[in-house]
Amino acid sequence: MISTTIKLDTINDVKNFVNTVAKYEFDVDLVSGRYAVDAKSIMGIFSLDLSRPIKMDVYSDSCEQFLSDIKKFIVPSEREK
Q1: What is the CA radius of gyration of the chain?
Q2: Judging by beta carbons within 10 Å of its beta carbon (0-12, 13-18, 19+), is residue 10 exposed, middle or buried?
Q3: What contacts 9, CB < 8 A, 6 or more positions away?
Q4: What's the pLDDT score for residue 81?
Q5: pTM of the predicted model over 0.85
Q6: List of residues 6+ apart from 61 with CB closer than 8 A
Q7: Starting from the edge strand earliest in sequence, which strands make up the sheet with 54-58, in order?
Q8: pLDDT band at 42 (very low <50, low <70, confident <90, very high)
C-alpha cells in the first residue's frame, strides 16, 4: 500500500480525478478525519471536506503510472518542498 496526500480544489478536479482512478483495477481510498470513501465514487468524494488536503491510500505496489497520472493533485510533502 502507498499513501500520499492530495488536494481537489474544483468540481472539475474531482471529475478528472475520479475518471483517472476509474481506469485502474486496484482499490484507492480517500481518508478525511474518520471518514474513508472509495476514490472511484464521485458522490463519496463530495461527502468529504474538500477545503483540506485528503489522505489517499493506494492498494497496489506497482502504481507508478497511476501516481504519474494524478501528480497535479498530489500535495508535496514537507521534505519535497
Answers
A1: 12
A2: exposed
A3: 50
A4: 47
A5: yes
A6: 1, 2
A7: 2-6, 54-58, 28-32, 35-38
A8: very high
Q: Are 46 and 14 in contact (CB under 8 A)?
A: yes
Task: Pull the grid cell for residue 25.
Answer: 483495477
Cell numbers at 80, concatenated: 519535497
CA–CA dist 73, 71 (Å, integer): 5
- Return the C-alpha cell found at 33: 478525519
Query: Would you put residue 35 in left (φ > 0), alpha (ψ -120 to 50) or beta?
Result: beta
Q: CB atoms < 10 A from the CB of 16, how many?
A: 16
Phi and psi at residue 69, to the nearest 5° = -65, -30
Long-range CB contacts for residues 25-28, cutoff 8 Å, separation at least 24: 26/58, 26/59, 26/60, 26/63, 26/66, 27/58, 27/59, 27/60, 28/56, 28/57, 28/58, 28/59, 28/66
